[in-house]
Amino acid sequence: MAEKHNPPHHRHSIPGLSALGKLDPKESEMIMEYFKTQVLLLKDKELLQKTVREEKKLLVENAKLKKDISDLKILLTEKQQKKKAKAAAASKLTAPGSTTALSAPGTNPKPDPVRERDGRRRRGERKGKRERTNSESALEEEPRMDVSRLDLRIGRIVGVRYHPLAGALYVQEVDLGEPAPRTVVSALRHIPKEQLQGRLAVLLCNVRPCRVKGVVSTAMVLCGSAPNAHDNDNDDDAQVEFLEPPTNAVPGDRVTFYDYPGEPDRELSPREKVWEQILPDLQTDSRGVATYRGVGFEVRGKGLCRAPTLTNSSIK
Length: 316
Prior knowledge:
elongated; 5 helices; about 35% helix; about 325 residues; CATH 2.40.50.140; tRNA-binding; alpha+beta; NA-bd_OB-fold; 5-stranded antiparallel beta sheet; coiled coil; protein biosynthesis; 15 strands; tRNA-bd_dom
């Protein structure tokens, strides 16, 4: 009778583990150390890439700060030159002219006390009349018509949504350093919604609140505006850019003008048309700096406001 041969039983094994099992303990330890080193190298590489990205970001911010400092130096030099010119003109006007003595010293007669007293009284009466006339004329003068009447402030857009009744309009919630954000309705259809969220802007804050298709708007965003090269007559296709405040500006910072001091109106009267009269003198210069009659939009101690690419263009 033939013997029964049972086929041999083969165990399934993982090639990598069986290979490691055959290695010397020292070799296994060396391989594990190699893997640990590779992991550490990968972590270092990731950290280095992150550091390079942050360094690039800092370089861009530093370049912008240097540009702001350069612009401030130019502005300061211009102001100093204007001061010197004004001082020189004033000194010419007040330079003493040659006078001729009416009588030789020692020959004047002794003044009469009564006449002197009467003369002083008459001079005092004439002076009082002149002062009253000047004060009355000052009251009758028209209020100043310049950019100092505008309440311009830095704001941060903290919320954006489409207008429920007009797809071309945005409704924005803007932080102006006040207890609560203001609602602002703007026609900024050329700027994507994502680019509005969280950005800083220059706003006119003392306009009278108005209802825009059912939503009350309490301020106005200022932008640089240039006509489209293909259609100069169509304002709807104009190129529009936000006026960018200095990098270290914060919501609530006032925008001032060196040559035009003064406190802004509490609210601009539509009857006086202050905004309409000042608007033609608002534009960007050859460097993109926002100006009023050549004087820059300045956040005191922080820098100038500018349009990123629009030069010699209007501001609306």
